[in-house]
Amino acid sequence: MIRDNQREIIQLQGYQRSVITDSLYKFNDRYFAVMATAYELQYLGKNFYSKTIEAVTIVKNIGLEFKYEILVPVKDSIYEHFIPNALELLQTIHIEKGY
Hints:
Layout: E1 8-12, E2 15-27, E3 30-43, E4 46-59, E5 62-72, H1 77-80, H2 82-91
């Protein structure tokens, strides 16, 4: 789902933030603008690793935002699988057409 050609590095507040994906996804007949990032930072001499995924959609001219974030001291399997798991969670969102 995430392609290497979508990766780029940008500077943000003194640390490197990698853009993992910045794309449109279609979940349950609704389009979402999705951006996922990862970065590493130091705090009190220790390294921490973070991944964030944000999704936005419009319902009746109102923007709905969803955000998942993880911050860990070690890169474990939960950290490595965070973005695919968050995308699976986004697929479970159902917004019904109201009156």
